[in-house]
Write a structure and sequence with these properties.
It contains three helices and seven strands; from the N terminus they run αββββαββαβ. It is of the alpha+beta class and about 150 residues long. The radius of gyration is 15 Å and the shape is globular.
Length: about 150
């Protein structure tokens, strides 16, 4: 049974995630994207990302994690990004991107996951982004430079 203290900690943990999702939407909009947070109150099997964005002819599905040093992204959540892009956007794969977004204190790191890895089942059970990593996706440059 959850104590009042446990409930408070759970609420704070969830609010941290909501804050990062809203902060990402703001950051994307500042960089010329149309972006919206998908408000899902509980984990679900539905293929819904945390944030969806569009810039030019490209669509992005983001899974967002908030942590201080490292963020883990389970394979099931990454799979949901690709299912969402596949099922809801009948455009070429070259214009659809699955992005892992780690909000590590004040630093954002982004990792683009390739369609080839997803199709060949080469996604790890848990992908990890740490503060010492370099992202492979820059929201302020990539689209304008043709990825």
């Amino acid at each position: 049974m959850l104590t009042d203290n446990d409930k408070l900690r759970l609420r704070r943990w969830r609010n941290r995630g909501f804050y990062s999702e809203r902060a990402l939407v703001t950051l994307l909009k500042k960089n010329g994207y149309n972006a919206v947070r998908i408000p899902v109150s509980a984990p679900s099997l539905s293929p819904l990302p945390d944030v969806v964005a569009r810039k030019k002819n490209n669509v992005f599905a983001f899974e967002v994690k908030n942590s201080s040093y490292f963020a883990y992204f389970p394979k099931q959540q990454i799979d949901k990004l690709f299912r969402f892009l596949n099922e809801f956007f009948p455009i070429k794969k070259e214009n659809k991107y699955a992005i892992l977004a780690a909000h590590l204190k004040k630093k954002w790191l982004f990792k683009r996951v390739s369609w080839k890895d997803w199709e060949n089942d080469k996604i790890l059970e848990n992908m990890r982004i740490t503060r010492s990593n370099r992202g492979n996706f820059k929201i302020d440059k990539e689209i304008d430079e043709g990825l």
